[in-house]
């Protein structure tokens, strides 16, 4: 379970990324979770989460474009997942 109180039955590793190449060796593993369910046991306030909202992948891309999602590791993970799941094409 993560801080939003959501659990997944299935996890698929889709890639890795290095947050700041050259400055640190911090490696992040990128997974896609599926078969999600809400537990009602979340730690939103403790983690600084104001709201949980389910949105489409297209909406997420618009949120990045509009500057509503700005975290580099989040954007990188979404790009990796989008390419692996063929939600984004490189053509």
* Number of domain modules: 1
Q: Give the averaged pLDDT, no decimals.
A: 87
Principal-axis shape equals globular
Identify low-pLDDT runs: none
In brief:
The protein is built from 3 helices and 2 strands, in the order E-E-H-H-H. By secondary structure, the protein is α+β, with helices and mostly antiparallel strands.
Helix and strand layout, with pairings?
Blueprint: E1 6-18, E2 27-38, H1 44-47, H2 57-65, H3 72-84
Detailed description of the structure:
The chain contains three helices and two strands. The chain has 91 residues and is of the alpha+beta class. The chain has one domain. The chain has a two-stranded antiparallel ribbon. The chain is globular and about 40 Å long.
Q: What descriptive keywords fit this protein?
A:
alpha+beta, 2 strands, 3 helices
